[in-house]
Amino acid sequence: MSSRSEHHGQRHSGNLYVLLAWRNIWRNKRRSLLLITSVVISVFVAVVFSSAQFGQDEYMVHVTVGFYEGHIQVHGNHYWDKRSFDQSMEMPEREIDEVAATAHVACVTPRLETISLISHATTTKIASVVGIDPEREDNMTGLKKRMVAGKYIETGSTGAVVSEGLAQLLHVGVGDSIVVYGQGFEGVTAAAIVPIQGLVKYPLPDLNNSMVYLSLGFAQQLYSAPSRLTALAVLLDDNKALDETAAAIKKVVDGDKEVMTWKEMMPELVQGIDANDAGTVLMLLILYVVIGFGIFGTVMMMTVERTREFGILVLIGMKRWRLIVITVIESILVSAVGLVVGVLISIPPVYYFYFNPIHLGGDYAKAMLAYGFEPIVPLSIAPIVFTIQGFSVFGLGVLSALYPLFVIRSLRPVSAMHG
Amino acid sequence: MKRRFIAILILSTLCVLSLCAQDAKEIVKKANDLLRGTHTYSEISMTIVKPEWTRTISMKSWSLEPDYALVYISEPARDKGSVTLKRKNEVWNWVPSIQRIIKIPPSMMLQSWMGSDFTNDDLVRQSSIVDDYTHSILGEETYEGMKCWKIQLIPKPEAGVVWGKIYLWISKGSYLELKTEYYDEDGNLQKSFFGSDVKTFDGRSIPAHWEMIPSNKPGQKTVLDYHEMKFSINLDAAFFSEQNMKRVR
Questions:
Q1: A124 touches B: beta carbon within 8 Å
Q2: Is the ipTM of this complex over 0.85?
Q3: Residue pLDDT, tens place only, A89-106
Q4: What are the start-end ranges of the H helices in A177-266?
Q5: CB within 8 Å: B100 and A125
């Protein structure tokens, strides 16, 4: 009987602490709102900042991978090193279908790609000539959407779709013909006069000045490489499944082929992301220091303000540890409210800028263009952005609550009362 | 008196040194002149050997040293009639299958010519192994049973040369360039050029079989076989025209 009432009493006192802490918070609304606001702003800043950084990483991968290369490529052995038709491969439709049917594979597109001279009248330029399966290529890279004139190629077309910048350099348009001159399979000369049937526009000058698309069959005939491919590009539905999917594809294709992930094909992109991440960590650390001192300063101010109150409470017989428990609960509650509100108010702008990326201008934009990226900063909506930043700031808030704890422990009630 | 003696000593040493240098340069010049006439016609077959495939191209070549050259491809059938024209430091190709002349842009000059181990730049390079290098005799070696000078060529600072150094093996007496090794600026062997099968063309005895072997590409080489050479044919600069690219047989 007595133990029951004791238990009941304990539970009651537990609730009492929370209740007292809650009342303390609302006793001085302005003071609590100040602290909550500082946590909210901190969470907001940290979330938006790291969302922009994560977004940039994701964007770099997404752009490079989805733009052209794909997450994974299948080549003939050593093709990626040598980039020659000697390392091209034969890949029957059945094998392509098997790769396409692998888990996490969103789409695949076969290509026969090489460098050739493109000439019109007295002007000659160097360009990438890519034989493509028109439907699959469009599926993967959205090539058709980039058309600015003429019509897109179809399977079996003997015309070319040329990037707009290259057409300008050669002073040609839809209906004109260009000379494609290069080297085919086994050193055979490849030369053809090809009518331009459409123009595509790329935002990246390098690409815009150097692309010629032919139908796969026509390219194979032009380069004397019937039924051969230089690459099968594979786009995934999830970059996180990169390595397992590469391993699965490796099992599906012939032994004399190499399966490479974008990390292997583009180590410079990985380095770029790593460098970017290191910068992010540094910036976040600085941000945390600023946020931490902000919250700590607010807590310190409030503690000073409440020293007299603490003094009186201790004098009239309140156990110090009870006071400490209440203060800690207060901090946790305030930080939690700040966390929730901070995350909630950061969601709309992050989502907005996720769907409407910020367009950059000026020198930074030029630098990004030079690196081959469109100068935009989309924000990331990965959950990790919200959880990590939210809880880091929450942690900082709770950590700041240690300060009143020390004050209360070493409080001299009489002098505290006299201020 | 002593000072005068030293002066004479230094002077005579310099004389001997310059004589030696003159000597090495003289040897290279003689070997070079033997191979390269000023008005040359030749018939050559070039075999490109790669690990995956082999291809032979037959061609006729006219050259007016040092500025003009024209190469006509007679085999294989698919490429028959293709012409490469070199004028000063420019290269044009005539492609009969599409009836077009295409100028090779400067950025393509280091690309392979006709799929071989020769680059477009090799065709037009202005540098001369006689004038653009400092020569010195490293010693004497026997190569393929022939006594040879081994000569080192270091490019002059002002010469636009891609090599760090070149070693030449030139046979004594007959001045045949039997072996050449090209090194990059880090001292790594890049490619070797071997001459053999000495034949007499137009009164000159020269190697008729050449092999160019790149060091970093196993299983790959380019072989040149000379079938006919004339060293003083009737040629002038007008022969090397765009019109003649389409006419020449």
A1: yes
A2: no
A3: 988 888 899 898 888 999
A4: 205-208, 216-222, 242-252, 262-265
A5: no
